[in-house]
Design goal:
It comes from Streptomyces griseoviridis. By secondary structure, this protein is an alpha+beta fold. It has six helices and twelve strands. The relative contact order is 0.22.
């Protein structure tokens, strides 16, 4: 039982793209409980399979050390749009992936005008590094490219002394508002909370970590609040009841 007076130490990590993978339930639980995605995976296998209510989209979480794309989201081809695929490697923070799935399941649908995924990065001071193209974060750790010849979008975080930390790849037919949701999260300077015992070792010297004691209920019920907020998007808007009728007019002779 969590008492209101209890506190939990949390590490707040910036830049957020170095925070490490985090809890997969931050993505899978809201998809199932708030957006109605069904699961059909074998409970004896480590992989997770979730399918959208219209059966057009599948999320696959497959912790295979020989497959860099632990997270794979595929949308089947329809009469109105070609199919597309998005992959995220294991160390991609779940908070960043969640911006993609939250936008994907938003019942209001995509914006009328397709956004420019690079706009939030430029606004946050990302620059074009010499001889590399694309856009790089101010610390030169994260890079975003659009690869025209292969019609792909690619995001990569890496530092010179370490291998690539994580990579995300979107096929060129991936809706731009979904990619823009991810780049907006990359540009966000809000730190990501992690258990202090699970701070990633890679690029440890390139991140800033502040520890705080937060109320235990804030940590314990964070996922429940997230599910409730996302579920509210799918509920029909309630309308105010009509005003009561006044007394019927009296008939006169």
């Amino acid at each position: 039982m969590v008492r209101v007076s209890d506190t939990v130490e949390q590490a707040l990590i910036t830049p957020r793209y170095l925070a490490g993978g985090g809890d997969p339930g931050w993505i899978t639980v809201p998809l199932h409980r708030a957006a109605g995605w069904s699961y059909g995976h074998d409970p004896l296998m480590p992989r997770v399979l979730l399918t959208s209510p219209d059966q057009l989209i599948q999320l696959r979480l497959d912790p295979d050390p020989d497959d860099p794309g632990w997270w794979t989201i595929r949308h089947a081809r329809t009469a109105d749009h070609p199919g597309w695929t998005a992959t995220f490697e294991a160390r991609t923070p779940v908070e960043i992936i969640a911006t993609f799935t939250d936008a994907l399941t938003d019942p209001s649908g995509p914006p009328t005008a397709a956004p420019d995924p690079c706009a939030p990065l430029r606004d946050a001071g990302w620059h074009t590094p010499p001889h590399l193209g694309g856009l790089a974060s101010p610390d030169n750790i994260a890079h975003v490219w659009r690869i025209g010849g292969r019609d792909l979008w690619s995001i990569e975080t890496a530092v010179i002394q370490d291998p690539t930390i994580w990579r995300a790849v979107f096929t060129g037919t991936t809706p731009l508002h979904l990619i823009a949701a991810v780049t907006q999260s990359l540009a966000d300077r809000t730190p990501i909370p992690r258990d202090p015992s699970r701070i990633p070792g890679l690029a440890r010297d390139r991140m800033t970590v502040h520890t705080h004691h937060l109320p235990a209920p804030d940590i314990a019920f964070a996922l429940e609040r997230r599910v409730s907020t996302l579920a509210a998007r799918h509920r029909p808007a309630t309308t105010a009841p009509p005003p009561p009728h006044g007394p019927s007019p009296r008939r006169t002779r």
